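Hi there,

I know you've been waiting on this one. I reran it after we fixed the sequence typo, so this is the corrected version. Both the input and the resulting structure follow.
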Amino acid sequence: MKARSISLIVLFGLIGLLAGPAAAEEPLVSAKVLHSQAAYAQGGTYPLAIALTIRPGWSIMSDRPKVKGPYPTTMLLQCSADCSFSPAVFPKTTAQKPGPDQTPVDVFSGTVIVRTTLTVAKNAQLGPQLLGARLSYQGCDDNTCALPDDLEVPIQVKIAPAGQAAAPLNQEIFKKK
C-alpha cells in the first residue's frame, strides 16, 4: 500500500514538473485599462481604452477578417444599468502571411489600443463600480495557432456627482488628433 502511495506521489510530481514551465509561461494576451480621467461624472460621456499586449512572436486575428476561416477578435463591453459603452474600436491591422504559399491574413501584434466611450447615466450611483470587458481571440505564431480563448478584463470606475471635474489621465492616448 505504501509503495502505491509513493508511486502516485512521484507520478503527480513528474506531471507537475512537466506542466510547470507551461503554466509559468506569460499569457498570450494581457490587458490594461487606460482611463481618461480619475472619475467619471454623472451624465457625461468619456473616452476609455484598453491596451492589449500580445506575446512577442505571436499575433491575434483581426476583428474583421477578410478571409474565411480565422477566428475573429471581439470585445464585449459590459456595463451596469448606470452606464453604457460604445462598440469597441480596434486599430488598423497588419497583413501577415501564415506560410510561404498562403494568403495574407489581417492580424494584431505587439501592443494595440482598443477604444470605446463610456456614457454615465444622469442618476448613476456614486462611488466605485466594477464594469468589464471580455476579449475573445485566437493567437498564432509562425508555426501554429492556439485554441480560441477569452480574457476577462475588469474595469474599475469611480462615478462622481454631475459637473464635478476630475483629474485627466493618460492624455497622450486621448489627445484630439
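Quick highlight: The mean pLDDT is 84.

Best,
R. S.
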